[in-house]
Design goal:
Distance between the termini: 31 Å
Structural class: alpha+beta
CATH topology: N-terminal domain of MutM-like DNA repair proteins
Strand content: 15-25%
Number of domains: 1
Number of helices: 3
Helix content: 25-40%
Number of strands: 5
CATH architecture: Alpha-Beta Barrel
Shape: globular
């Protein structure tokens, strides 16, 4: 599970979730941790991103292209300095280096 806070942006206009919502599944796949969720989202080619929450089993569905296009606006509008923390960036970079050397 991953704890989330839905920020205001065009793709999330009609989403109203409690502050301490946890993502339990992404596109019906159980989430192990935040790095696992990032891997799943980054590799997704589906039209929609489906996030199942622990709050009354609500599902947040976003159009993938709209969400990706709005990412920079969301970061800037909410004073978020980076797409992910340095430790997650390093973990993903390490995975990419390992895959490239195979």
């Amino acid at each position: 599970m991953c704890c989330v806070h839905v920020v205001c942006a065009t793709p999330t206009t009609h989403i109203h979730t409690p502050v301490n919502t946890q993502i339990t599944h992404f596109n019906d796949i159980p989430i192990n941790n935040l790095l696992h969720l990032i891997r799943l989202v980054n590799s997704c080619t589906d039209t929609y991103l489906r996030f199942t929450t622990d709050t009354l089993n609500k599902v947040i569905i976003l159009n993938r292209e709209t969400a990706l296009a709005a990412t920079d606006q969301v970061l800037q509008g909410n004073a978020i300095p980076a797409r992910m923390s340095r430790d997650l960036q390093e973990a993903l970079a390490g995975e990419e280096k390992g895959a490239a050397s195979v």
